[in-house]
Amino acid sequence: MLQLVPDTLLGTVMPLLMADLEFFLFFIAGAVFFEKGERTLFALLTTPLRFRHYLTSKLVTMAALAVATCAVVVLVDYGTGFAVLPLLAGVVSMALLMVLAGFITAPLFPSISEWLLPSALVLLVANAPLLDYSGLHPHPLFLLVPTEGSILLLGAAFHQVSLTGWQLAYAIGYPVLWIGLLCLLARRVFHRHVVAKEGGQ
User: Fold this and answer.
1) How confident is the model at residue 200 (pLDDT cuts 50, 70, 90)?
2) How far is it, in rounded angstroms, from Cα 137 to Cα 19?
3) 85: pLDDT confidence band, cut at 50, 70 and 90?
4) Running DSSP on this structure, what letter comes out for residue 146?
5) Domain that holds residue 63
6) Count of domains for the chain
7) Is the Cβ–Cβ distance between 25 and 122 less than 8 Å?
8) pTM of this prediction?
9) What is the radius of gyration, based on Cα positions, of the chain?
């Protein structure tokens, strides 16, 4: 599809494409529902494996998959004229935010069909900063959404935005803060909606 995009517009399109990592939300949610259905999570409760190791393995795997996928797309369709570190930081932070959002929301529902509609709200919030980034509706309140930082990093990776010192600190630090908070929330949700229910069955 990118072959139809003029070379002069590739730099504009690439950050938007790289930010489109919503499939990780559905990927991890599907994995959670599958593991619940197969009683894999119940087996996890009977092993010495700690929750932080379980969650870390999910996050590392999904982040590596995101980097590999985006690297192929960028190298094939854009070339090498991008900034590596902002791209890596933007892709990884966006992927981790999506994975954690899916990991936290999926256990709240008994089936994936019941989860799909509420997941649309997660996607709406996650994509809201694109209105600010694209200039369609700039507003400082978008800075409260953690994906704003990831999108800014992706824009910087393809030389679409020039980040000041405080913007760079925000773009890196704010998503990292949210990732840490979401990890804590993931633990709470897991123990309340998975451990308690599985243990009571």
Assistant:
1) very low
2) 18
3) very high
4) T
5) 2-199
6) 1
7) yes
8) 0.90
9) 18
